[in-house]
Design goal:
The structure is a homodimer. Chain A is an alpha/beta fold. The first copy, chain A, has a domain of about 130 residues: Rossmann fold, CATH 3.40.50.300. Helices cover about 45% and strands about 20% of the residues of chain A. Chains A and B meet through α6, β9, α7 and α8 of A and α6, β9, α7 and α8 of B.
Chain lengths: ~200, ~200
């Protein structure tokens, strides 16, 4: 179990559901919220920066971290491994700031085991057809890759009941507003605000 | 138990904590949210309108409604009785819209018994001193009335642990943002969004 003074948010979504747009805007707009940086064995894509987008490590180092219990959760996706570093997460949580972790459904389930009060948020595409349309319009994937992504998306969607919140990304503004609201509402939750309430009460 | 397709929110606060300002703004700003109208035995104050601010009824009628089980909850405060009408509430909830109920802590506990998934929100003053200051600056109450209100406020604050959310009204803008966020976050909660998620999943 990981103790933490700040809130932990996890966001998952099938590829093409708009998760990157939503999380990037959230982290820019909401104060005192840190975006998680994962470790990965995949190679950097053009524009990706070490220590900002990912910590890029090789298979040997990843294996070693797995053996040492260095990951809170890790998964393999499309032949590459991704993991949330335990020391990294503990370091960020010790600051008292809130943290947003972007992880796959399997990783999210594993994370909940060590941080039971993490708030799990799933970004829903409005429909299978619209998801496929978005994947095609990005022009990044072959037909075969899109077929695999759609298959994977279905598998991820099947886990929706494990999440606390489902944000439907039909209208981007509304979706963003809901996404941000989850962070602010969590900051006003009883568990978070009890110490402040006790202090007020003591003054009466 | 009352079945309902919409969300039920309850807001409580000691007098002077800024609840009216926050709730009025919320109901003006958030679509598909109805503000509850209570029944009361107290007389209308200048500017109050029957059927908008309250349903004003006499003691005899209130007694009859109590006997007939016509209230979801009712309480007596400062010699007057206030209650949430069961038929009224069922009627509003049947529309599928969300409802915001403004009720005392005792009433809120009673309401939770019939609507267990109601979200209970407590507005916290930043301190006892600031609450007393606000009550004095309103110029509506005598010293003795303020003493009674402060005593009552302490009693209400002692119930804070029964609430889901505590909104500290120190900075009004931040408090309003948190208050509104609770509504939008609840609309994205798993229970609320499950039918939509199932529909999306069926398309895959």
């Amino acid at each position: 179990m990981i103790q933490h003074p700040g809130n932990v948010f996890v966001v998952s979504a099938p590829s093409g559901a708009g998760k990157s747009t939503l999380t990037q805007r959230l982290v820019r707009s909401v104060p005192d919220l840190i975006f998680s940086i994962s470790f990965t064995t995949r190679k950097p894509r053009p524009g990706e920066v070490e220590g900002r987008d990912y910590f890029f490590i090789d298979d040997e180092r990843f294996d070693a971290m797995v053996r040492e219990g260095g990951f809170v959760e890790w998964v393999e996706v499309y032949g590459h491994r991704y993991g949330t570093g335990r020391d990294w997460l503990n370091g960020v949580l010790a600051t008292g700031l809130d943290v947003l972790l972007d992880i796959e459904t399997t990783g999210a389930m594993n994370l909940r085991k060590v941080i039971p009060d993490a708030r799990l948020i799933f970004i829903l595409p409005p429909s299978a057809a619209s998801l496929e349309q978005r994947l095609r319009s990005r022009g990044k994937d072959s037909d075969e890759q899109i077929r695999i992504r759609m298959h994977h998306a279905r598998h991820e969607l099947e886990q929706y009941q494990a999440y606390d919140y489902l944000v439907m990304n039909d209208d981007l503004e509304l979706a963003y507003h809901q996404f941000e609201s989850i962070v602010y509402a969590t900051r006003a939750s009883l568990g978070r605000m009890s110490p402040a309430a006790r202090r007020v009460l003591e003054g009466f």
